[in-house]
Design goal:
four-stranded mixed beta sheet, about 40% helix, three-stranded mixed beta sheet
Length: about 200
């Protein structure tokens, strides 16, 4: 609890600066955000954050474990002990971003409307979800390409579900007729995931 208290005390001490972030010049803004990341890393190495755009209701600060399930507990504990501050909403894990997404990772761009998936069995872990993703360039073995596909799934499913449900993932080239080849539109994945979780929990 001491590390959690120290982080939130620092946040409250700099609350006014963080609220006025958009009014700071580039150097001041960069230094403040770097300081926030430093304080977060002092609490737990490996956690990161994302700042949402300000709205009439305030701003969202989302904490992420970058998919590392070993860091889920400290992330949840940090968010559970967040202070009640006007203008701020504190969220654990990157949330689903909807469908019909265009995700850029490194030099690659992934459009969910041009991607497809099919379920694979995870015999050793039946409670986990196996996925095969058909995508243009899916034969690529480049690590950045494969990570980009995962990041796209994370944007559709949210960080928690992506990290805790996917037990196996591979990519294949895009077939000429994906539906005839047994694939579904990747934009249908969030709905499929909800069905999978209900079936698993029955």
């Amino acid at each position: 609890m001491e590390k959690i208290d120290r982080f939130w005390q620092w946040f409250q001490d700099h609350n006014e600066q963080l609220i006025a972030l958009g009014d700071l010049d580039f150097k001041e803004r960069t230094e403040l955000l770097n300081a926030l990341q430093y304080q977060l890393s002092k609490y737990c190495e490996g956690l990161s954050f994302e700042l949402g755009e300000p709205t009439a209701d305030g701003r969202t600060l989302t904490f992420s474990a970058e998919g590392d399930t070993d860091l889920f507990r400290p992330l949840i504990e940090l968010t559970d002990h967040a202070p009640d501050l006007d203008w701020w909403q504190f969220v654990a894990f990157k949330q689903p971003m909807g469908t019909d997404l265009k995700v850029r990772f490194d030099r690659f761009t992934f459009e969910t409307k041009k991607m497809f998936f099919q379920q694979l069995e995870c015999e050793e872990e039946p409670e986990m979800l196996g996925l095969r993703v058909a995508v243009e360039g899916g034969e690529s073995q480049e690590e950045d390409f494969q990570v980009g596909v995962y990041v796209t799934l994370e944007a559709l499913m949210g960080e928690f579900d992506c990290a805790t449900l996917i037990g196996y993932l591979d990519t294949v080239p895009l077939p000429a007729e994906p539906f005839k080849a047994g694939f579904q539109s990747l934009d249908d994945l969030p709905q499929f995931v909800e069905w999978f979780k209900r079936k698993r929990d029955e």
